[in-house]
Design a protein that fits this description.
The complex is a heterodimer of chains A (114) and B (114). Chain A has no helices and eleven strands. Chain A is mainly β. In chain A, the strands form two sheets. In chain A, strands 2, 4, 5, 6, 9, 10 and 11 form a seven-stranded mixed sheet that branches. Chain A has a four-stranded antiparallel sheet with strand order 1-3-8-7, with no helix packed on it. Chain B is 0% helix and 56% strand. Chain B has no helices and eleven strands. Chain B is globular and about 45 Å long. Chain B starts with a strand and ends with a strand. The interface between A and B is medium-sized, with 24 and 22 residues.
Chain lengths: 114, 114
């Protein structure tokens, strides 16, 4: 069974630009969560989607948005990029998002904002 | 609200020595607790989880953790460190009474000395 895939793996953008990251969950998984990982803040939860609906949301500004498609693939978008948005963005999928279901993480997209 | 504190951002142990990574949690409701490992340039992988069954939880790669409610701790141990254990380890908490986001600690980087 293929794992969680994220594209692209690396991105370099400049301040003010916008970026879209993609996540393909494991086949059959309907929950997709996004995290931002930085050396200073660690792993911070962005949002979770389940069956195309945002089910949970972290404390990030509205510049960060996401969506999920009917095939469970998910995208997250960051508009008006700031230097502080440089981070590793991780996507995780699980079967139905319930507490006892393991989250499987993708390798991440490393975003650098210049 | 839930929170996790990992004591020590870096821990070094000799190969063959005991590994002990400390995690203390705070939760207003019964928690689910997790340990994840992250190898360089990879996503997170679940090592083990506590979901209110046995308090001593065994995970992959010889790791185990004990849930101690009185100490609000969930320390990760391994009797004998191996070079391949060098990685970053994250403790995480999630409330058990309803679906909610996972809160991660800031991580502990484990160094194995030859």
């Amino acid at each position: 069974k293929a794992g969680v895939t994220q594209t692209p793996r690396y991105l370099i953008k400049t301040r003010g630009q916008q970026v879209t990251l993609s996540c393909s969950p494991i086949s059959g998984h309907r929950s997709v969560s996004w995290y931002q990982q930085t050396p200073g803040q660690g792993l911070q939860f962005l949002f979770e989607y389940f069956s195309e609906t945002q089910r949970n949301k972290g404390n990030f500004p509205g510049r960060f948005s996401g969506r999920q498609f009917s095939n469970s693939r998910s995208e997250m978008n960051v508009s008006t990029l700031e230097l502080g948005d440089s981070a590793l963005y991780l996507c995780a999928s699980s079967r139905d998002g319930q507490e006892y279901n393991e989250q499987f993480f993708g390798p991440g997209t490393r975003l650098t904002v210049l | 609200a839930q929170s996790v504190t990992q004591l020590g951002s870096h821990v070094s142990v000799s190969e063959g020595a005991l590994v002990l990574l400390r995690c203390n949690y705070s939760s207003s409701v019964p928690p689910y607790l997790f340990w994840y490992v992250q190898y360089p340039n990879q996503g997170l992988q679940l090592l083990l989880k506590y979901t209110s069954a046995a308090t001593l939880v065994k995970g992959i790669n010889g790791f185990e953790a004990e849930f101690k409610k009185s100490e609000t701790s969930f320390h990760l141990t391994k009797p004998s460190a191996h070079m391949s254990d060098a990685a970053e380890y994250f403790c995480a908490v999630k409330r058990a009474d309803r679906d909610d986001k996972i809160i991660f600690g800031k991580g502990t980087r484990l160094h194995i000395l030859p």
